[in-house]
Amino acid sequence: MPVICVGGMIGIGKTSVAELLAKELGSHVFYESVADNPILPLFYTASPEEIQAKRYPFLLQLYFLQTRFAAIKDAYKKRDNVLDRSIYEDWYFAKVNHELGRISSLEMRVYEGLLDEMMREIDGLPYRKAPDLMVYLKADFATVMYRIGLRGRDFEQDADLVEYYRTLWSGYDDWVHRHYSASDVLVVDMDRTDVVNNPEDAARVVREVRDALASVGSAA
């Protein structure tokens, strides 16, 4: 059975797609650590002064890095799993926060050093070294903001976060097409896809993923 990474913007629908694929493919979901994340609400609600003093963006990236590293090793060991975001995307978020001045150059070097060590360990795993497919969920910025609003997490709703979301969104395609190389990528247009409320959309996404996996298998 395959290992699939589901990636894309905050709020775009990764968890819903991951759960759909896991159900249809008979696998399990490794969820992004959000509900039990002690740093995430602080990251979203901190003032610029608090960010400088407490270094929440750096702490958040270290937390996500550690949890995603543990998740992907476990997912690879069991072979038939879907990851709701993965360690491969983690660097992009760190990069954006570094460019915004939220993560210092020294912190970025420490982060990248840890990430490099983790990726070397993943490359040396005896049972699997990469996912079979990345399912990249893509949408216009208006769709992203609408869906962030729909899920109703209070700490994500601050109007001051709009430019942060826009910065993340504006560079996501570039990261996928220029920096991600662990597997083939299937792009799903979330402007016209609602896997929760439209069964035809859900069936189409499952069919496209199955076709993509078959293509990867035939090329191997």
What labels would you give this structure?
220 residues, globular, alpha/beta, 11% strand, 59% helix, 5 strands, five-stranded parallel sheet, Rossmann fold
Protein architecture, described:
The protein has helices at 14-25, 40-45, 48-54, 56-78, 87-99, 105-123, 141-151, 162-178, 199-219; strands at residues 3-8, 28-30, 81-84, 133-138, 184-189. The protein has 220 residues and is of the alpha/beta class. The chain has one domain (3-219): P-loop containing nucleotide triphosphate hydrolases (Rossmann fold). Strands 2-3-1-4-5 form a five-stranded parallel sheet, with helices on both faces. It is globular and about 50 Å long. The mean pLDDT is 90.
Secondary-structure topology with pairs:
Blueprint lengths: L2 E6 L5 H12 L2 E3 L9 H6 L2 H7 L1 H23 L2 E4 L2 H13 L5 H19 L9 E6 L2 H11 L10 H17 L5 E6 L9 H21 L1
Parallel strand pairs: 1-3, 1-4, 2-3, 4-5
Helix pairs in contact: 1-9, 4-5, 4-6, 5-6, 5-8
Query: Structural class from helices and strands?
Result: alpha/beta
Number of helical segments?
Answer: 9
Order of helices and strands: EHEHHHEHHEHHEH
Q: What is the CATH class?
A: Alpha Beta
Question: Please, what is the average pLDDT?
Answer: 90
Q: Which regions contain 5 or more consecutive residues with pLDDT less than 50?
A: none
Main sheet makeup: 5 strands, parallel
Q: Provide the β-strand percentage band.
A: 5-15%
* End-to-end C-alpha gap: 14 Å
Bulk shape: globular
The CATH topology name reads Rossmann fold
Q: Cα-atom Rg, whole angstroms?
A: 17 Å
The count of DSSP E runs of length 2 or more, i.e. the number of strands, is 5
Reported CATH architecture = 3-Layer(aba) Sandwich
CATH homologous superfamily label: P-loop containing nucleotide triphosphate hydrolases
Whole-number tally of structural domains = 1
Q: Roughly what percent helix?
A: 55-70%
